[in-house]
Amino acid sequence: MKAKLRIKKGDTVKVLTGEDKGKTGRVLKVDAEKGRAIVEGTNLVSKHTKPNATHPQGGIIKQEAPIHLSNLMLVDSKGVASKIVINKDEKTGKSIRVSKKSGEVIK
């Protein structure tokens, strides 16, 4: 059985390690197979491109590269970064994500 991902598209996360340590951003994409996520405004790399329809000039553009999920920590609506626990909802029986520090349910 595959483990539940604690980080999903649209979540706000904090980067824990690397060049962008301490930065926060929104998750744009999650690759569950590789265990990586692309976070808005972090881990920027330079990519050389030929002229095309989207970039008529071509040249060097900056874009986000994937970061391993272990290097990200979810930030709840109060702005507190904490570990996440997956619990069962008593009413519906569905899995819910709960912040360990604040006890807040994360949508």
Give a concise summary.
This protein has 107 residues and is mostly beta strands.
Describe the structure.
- The protein has 107 residues and is mostly beta strands.
- It has a single domain, classed as SH3 type barrels.
- The chain has no helices and 10 strands.
- A 5-stranded antiparallel β-sheet has the order 6-3-2-1-7, with no helix packed on it.
Poorly predicted sequence stretches spanning 5 or more consecutive residues = none
Overall number of structural domains: 1
Task: Kindly report the spatial arrangement of strands forming the biggest sheet.
Answer: 6-3-2-1-7
Alpha carbon gap, first and last residue: 23 Å
How many strand segments?
Answer: 10
Q: How would you sum up the major sheet?
A: 5 strands, antiparallel
Radius of gyration: 17 Å
Output the CATH class name: Mainly Beta
User: Rough shape?
Assistant: elongated
Q: Total helix count?
A: 0
Report mean pLDDT, rounded to a whole number: 92
